[in-house]
């Protein structure tokens, strides 16, 4: 089950300066020295020999500021360093990471879990912890490889006999990403001003505004010779507001703004206008009727369409899922076959830092296996052309395209980054809306649905359950064919299966927009982006969404208890 995202110091310096910086970096020195020592020692061990070793250190500095009802309620910062070890024994053809059929736990396949390191620049202290963790990882690898051999001896032959690991050329790159100190006085004042805007509205039962700034630098060294330090800044300003209907349904609206610097965040006027719009939308939702289960024509507005593609197909095109025996392998045998409308092209490219001047959270230079980020062509004019690849090869795809990702403490697998949906033929959004009404009349439907905003969703790709998806809308309109005004409705979730849903795409608008989010899967939570135009589907199925049985608050909020 999967849930659903920079300013570089030193790039203008010459090679000699960069080399000097790398040589004086205590973390890089500790990693390099201990890797060389460990690899030399373990590759000649009496047990199953080591053939590959990689260290990745993630250094994170995070600051969080939150405000409610015009007052700061949270002000905190945190610095951490975490180590991940990829240690492989035997050969790339068969090693300790090989799937153990019948074992559904990805955690058990992970070689290391949550390994903290000192945050001081003390090379000796760092090496001591790396040595300790490497010894445990080596012993765990030997244990896992024994299980792999036993499992292969007693289970059926695998459909895809691809190796467990692919080689990659060594990369050398060094940058230190920094972020200026936050002007706390300035941002405290802004957040209090934003959050105070909700105080005048009695039907808002909870609200808040927050600003998160994270600088993340990653070190990666491996036995192939890669020596990399790279990073990103993730800044997010967001607000949320919530209410509850008399029938117990929780409702919410909100907005989030992402950037790689504080200057990329919107103006006060823009945020306040969005807050006022969200308050009006929440009021409309609170008074809106519930939609019964429905199937018929629908429009996914641009940002919602990005989430939709992420959920229905993104995870199913992750390379490792095409050979894992427990996976549904929905598209594994559909290469070069048509799977969606001729107008649709989809690719994933981590190299895209900005789209039309706005930051994409899925941007990075190198993935978590030391492979340079590359564009992965997925769908071309409706035809399936490829998969997102880590260094776990599959049939016909022997090499990584730089999509091996994870969060600290989790195993690396292939994951999305910046998923780009493009249409070769588009119309204006008003024209797309006209086509929706025409399609409704053609199907004798009194109305169609427009999905304006989506919170996220989840999908199941495994064989142990329904291989379906669910997308969670936040704001939905009913568009009538008889000319009545559009009507806000509530209480619906989008459901479906990927092959059928992809075949329903009929047309696209010329209005691409960005969804920035964070995606969760077996390799943890990673920042992602999706860019898509608005899409018209000839058929979409919705079902009633989950709701609580709680009533609204007994008393009015204190500022409105007259």
* Global mean pLDDT: 91
CATH class of the largest domain: Alpha Beta
- What is the alpha-carbon Rg in Å? 25 Å
CATH architecture of the largest domain: 2-Layer Sandwich
CATH superfamily of the largest domain: PmbA/TldD superfamily
Tell me the number of strands.
28
Q: In which range does the helix fraction lie?
A: 10-25%
- N→C terminal distance: 47 Å
CATH topology of the largest domain: PmbA/TldD fold
Give a short account of the largest sheet. Answer: 8 strands, mixed
**Assembly level:** single chain
Structural class based on helices, strands and sheet pairing: alpha+beta
Detailed description of the structure:
With 562 residues, this protein is of the alpha+beta class. The protein folds into two domains: 6-282, PmbA/TldD superfamily (PmbA/TldD fold), CATH 3.30.2290; 294-544, no CATH class. It is 22% helix and 35% strand. It contains eight helices and 28 strands. It has helices at 15-23, 26-42, 123-154, 184-196, 268-286, 302-314, 429-442, 498-502; strands at 2-3, 8-9, 50-68, 71-91, 94-95, 115-116, 172-174, 176-177, 206-222, 227-244, 250-259, 294-300, 344-348, 354-355, 358-359, 376-380, 383-384, 404-405, 413-414, 418-423, 447-459, 469-480, 487-489, 492-496, 505-508, 513-521, 524-532, 535-544. Strands 3, 4, 5, 6, 7, 9, 10 and 11 form an eight-stranded mixed beta sheet that branches. Strands 17-16-13-20-27-26 form a six-stranded mixed beta sheet, with helices on one face. The chain has a five-stranded mixed β-barrel with strand order 12-21-22-24-28. The model is unreliable at 1-17 (pLDDT under 50).
